[in-house]
Amino acid sequence: QKEVEQDPGPLSVPEGAIVSLNCTYSNSAFQYFMWYRQYSRKGPELLMYTYSSGNKEDGRFTAQVDKSSKYISLFIRDSQPSDSATYLCAMSAPLLLEAGSYQLTFGKGTKLSVIP
Amino acid sequence: DTAVSQTPKYLVTQMGNDKSIKCEQNLGHDTMYWYKQDSKKFLKIMFSYNNKELIINETVPNRFSPKSPDKAHLNLHINSLELGDSAVYFCASSPGDRVYNEQFFGPGTRLTVL
């Protein structure tokens, strides 16, 4: 079992729809949970991050973490064509080698298309 | 005013050759990384450097070697290139060795090995 599982899609929705993107993970040591957005032929950019369980909202985006289920979600409200991109979840856990160092593990990414 | 830059953007080469990819960040960050993104878009960390010390070294072949001449640069050298090395390689940087801090990615170098 991979450490982080993410459905690669593709996911196609009409403009204005609510989008739900999800990841599951197996490593209970993960403490920080991030969502990166990657446009075609570009590098990923951080969209949101959360620490431990709970919700975090930023404009049209809401990130949820359920550590008991090892499940994280990203919701996009009122989706726009400009949201069309690949969304990668990422998680970090402390390395055993060096205190304070964190390793980042990415999901495979979900490709989202928002149709006008 | 590019934050993280990589050169070249595209690299096409023959099997067995040796090549280098350069990375520079002008953000004053302490930690830099190299990632490999394969054809299935899976992004996997290869190396990271903090203050010129290697702090993460995933199980990549020793044909790959990172070189950091200074805090702003982390170059990737690849010897004896193989077909399976074809991928997009991303450089990234972050303020410290705590990766919950935002990582800033370069535009990527698309490597094709023929």
Describe the structure.
The complex is a heterodimer of chains A (116) and B (114). With 116 residues, chain A is mostly beta strands. Helices cover 0% and strands 57% of the residues of chain A. Chain A contains no helices and 11 strands. In chain A, strands 2, 4, 5, 9, 10 and 11 form a 6-stranded mixed β-sheet that branches. A 5-stranded antiparallel β-sheet of chain A has the order 1-3-8-7-6, with no helix packed on it. The N and C termini of chain A lie far apart (37 Å). The mean pLDDT of chain A is 89. Chain B has 114 residues and is mostly beta strands. In chain B, 0% of the residues lie in helices and 55% in strands. Chain B has strands at 4-7, 10-13, 19-25, 31-37, 43-50, 53-57, 64-70, 73-78, 87-94, 104-105, 109-113. In chain B, strands 2, 4, 5, 6, 9, 10 and 11 form a 7-stranded mixed β-sheet that branches. A 4-stranded antiparallel β-sheet of chain B has the order 1-3-8-7, with no helix packed on it. The interface between A and B is medium-sized, with 28 and 23 residues.
Question: What secondary-structure arrangement, pairings included, does this model have?
Answer:
The complex is a heterodimer of chains A (116) and B (114).
Chain A: E1 4-6, E2 11-14, E3 19-25, E4 32-38, E5 45-51, E6 54-58, E7 61-66, E8 71-76, E9 85-94, E10 102-106, E11 110-115
Parallel strand pairs in A: 2-11
Antiparallel strand pairs in A: 1-3, 3-8, 4-5, 4-9, 6-7, 7-8, 9-10, 9-11
Chain B: E1 4-7, E2 10-13, E3 19-25, E4 31-37, E5 43-50, E6 53-57, E7 64-70, E8 73-78, E9 87-94, E10 104-105, E11 109-113
Parallel strand pairs in B: 2-11
Antiparallel strand pairs in B: 1-3, 3-8, 4-5, 4-9, 5-6, 7-8, 9-10, 9-11
